[in-house]
Write a structure and sequence with these properties.
Length: 75
C-alpha cells in the first residue's frame, strides 16, 4: 500500500474546521495534528481573518530591509 500524500494546506483546512466546532478541544487537536498550540491558534487566527485563503503558505521574506543598498548605488 503506498503512502498517502496529504498537502499541508488540506491538513490546515481540516484542523481549522475541526477546531472551529463548538466545544472543540483545540489542544487535543494540536496533539493529534502534531503541531504546537501556538501554531494551531495562529492557523485559527489566519482562518478567521482571511478564510481558507489565509491558510496558504506565506512568503518569509521581510517586508522591509533597512540595510538594503539604495537603487541609485546598485545601478
Amino acid at each position: 500500500m503506498p503512502w498517502q500524500e496529504v498537502s499541508i494546506v488540506s491538513q490546515r483546512r481540516e484542523f481549522v474546521l475541526l477546531a472551529s466546532r463548538e466545544g472543540a478541544n483545540k489542544r487535543a487537536l494540536c496533539r493529534r495534528f502534531g503541531i504546537s498550540p501556538t501554531v494551531g491558534y495562529r492557523w485559527l487566527a489566519r482562518y478567521r481573518a482571511a478564510g481558507l485563503a489565509g491558510l496558504e503558505d506565506r512568503s518569509r521574506r521581510p517586508l522591509h530591509s533597512p540595510n538594503e543598498t539604495p537603487v541609485a548605488i546598485q545601478a
